């Protein structure tokens, strides 16, 4: 046996023994004491807790109209693709102005493979539909909504990551619905900041990009091409391009994060002046996806909400069933725009 092969075998053996030494012991498994060690199995209970029981799909006019138009125009929504538990609340809406839909642009096939996401993946997705920007704008104009969320699959196969297509859609929507508020929930465009600028300068009202999880877990949760620091740069650059633009991000909880890691992530976000943050429970879409490590209690969601409030975030949505675009119109319109309206009224009164 050669010296090189012996050295390689020795290194591999040492790595295995090191991992074994830092993992849970047999006694740890008996006592369920694996804090600070690499968990080999999730301690999550088999049954869903009561606070994660979801409501049935409604039969409201808003819901029917949105679904019918989406099918007719060949549009996709992340609400359906990601099996969101809040589709009844968001699509149903107490009124047209408070109903929210999240349209997924650039098809329903993503070039990335994050371990939490149920969207289809491929390195060679179908080409972009040139009619999609206009079709999307026409559908939104018919719905009469006050707020719309536009998101997309990742398109690493495109030179600009699809930024121009995204921006064109925003422009077409604003052209037909000038009073509507648009949130763009984008990917990281492979770190291309010029693509971020293309979307940011297209006339949107809120720029959102999700961190998804804490820095330590990012390599295990997101596609290898997505990094925690790259996502921070995307959010930071959006503010550099438009300092008064509302920026937003979201976290999934229940995948092994700690309170200290959440706090550290929030501190990083405040450094770059991110305005809105949401927290929701990770739910495993299928058995092919990563397991749920923990069903986080509502009290913990409330704790993180207060933590973020104390740090100065403009708005926080935090709860087991909250998703990144959860009732976005209601949250933004009622809690952010009203504050801005009050400031304007105060200025007029003083003048």
From TrEMBL:
[4Fe-4S] cluster 1 binds at residues 79, 84, 90, 325. Binds 2 [4Fe-4S] clusters per subunit. One cluster is coordinated with 3 cysteines and an exchangeable S-adenosyl-L-methionine. Its EC number is 2.8.1.8. GO terms for cellular component: mitochondrion. InterPro entries: Aldolase_TIM, Elp3/MiaA/NifB-like_rSAM, LIAS_N, Lipoyl_synth, rSAM, rSAM_sf. Residues 95-314 form the Radical SAM core domain. It catalyses: [[Fe-S] cluster scaffold protein carrying a second [4Fe-4S](2+) cluster] + N(6)-octanoyl-L-lysyl-[protein] + 2 oxidized [2Fe-2S]-[ferredoxin] + 2 S-adenosyl-L-methionine + 4 H(+) = [[Fe-S] cluster scaffold protein] + N(6)-[(R)-dihydrolipoyl]-L-lysyl-[protein] + 4 Fe(3+) + 2 hydrogen sulfide + 2 5'-deoxyadenosine + 2 L-methionine + 2 reduced [2Fe-2S]-[ferredoxin]. [4Fe-4S] cluster 2 binds at residues 110, 114, 117. Belongs to the radical SAM superfamily. Lipoyl synthase family. This is Lipoyl synthase, mitochondrial. It comes from Pneumocystis wakefieldiae.
């Amino acid at each position: 046996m050669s010296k090189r092969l012996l050295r390689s075998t020795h290194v591999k053996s040492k790595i295995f023994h090191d991992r074994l030494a830092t993992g849970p012991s047999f006694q740890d498994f008996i006592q369920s004491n694996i804090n600070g060690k690499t968990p080999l199995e999730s301690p999550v209970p088999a049954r869903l807790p009561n606070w994660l029981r979801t409501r049935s799909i409604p039969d409201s006019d808003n819901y029917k109209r949105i679904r019918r138009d989406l099918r007719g125009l060949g549009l996709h929504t992340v609400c359906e693709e990601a099996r969101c538990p809040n589709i009844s609340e968001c699509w149903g809406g107490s009124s047209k102005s408070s109903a929210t839909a999240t349209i997924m642009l650039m098809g329903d096939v993503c070039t990335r493979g994050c371990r939490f996401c149920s969207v289809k993946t491929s390195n060679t997705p179908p080409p972009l539909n040139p009619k999609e920007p206009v079709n999307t704008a026409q559908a939104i104009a018919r719905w009469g909504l006050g707020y719309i969320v536009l998101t997309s699959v990742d398109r690493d196969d495109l030179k600009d990551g699809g930024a121009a297509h995204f921006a064109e859609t925003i422009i077409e929507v604003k052209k037909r619905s000038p009073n509507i508020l648009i949130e763009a929930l984008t990917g990281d465009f492979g770190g291309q900041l010029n693509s971020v600028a293309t979307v940011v300068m297209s006339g949107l009202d809120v720029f959102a990009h999700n961190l998804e999880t804490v820095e330590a877990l990012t390599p295990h949760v997101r596609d290898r091409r997505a990094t925690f620091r790259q996502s921070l740069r995307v959010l930071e650059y959006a503010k550099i391009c438009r300092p008064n633009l509302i920026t937003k991000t979201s976290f999934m909880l229940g995948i092994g994060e700690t309170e200290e890691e959440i706090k550290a992530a929030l501190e990083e976000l405040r450094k770059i002046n991110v305005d809105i943050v949401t927290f929701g429970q990770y739910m495993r879409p299928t058995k092919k996806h990563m397991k749920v490590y923990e069903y986080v209690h509502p009290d913990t969601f409330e704790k993180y909400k207060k933590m973020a409030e104390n740090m100065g975030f403009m708005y926080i949505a935090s709860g087991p069933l909250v998703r990144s675009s959860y009732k976005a119109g209601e949250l933004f319109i009622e809690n952010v725009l009203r504050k801005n309206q009050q400031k304007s009224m105060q200025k007029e009164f003083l003048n």
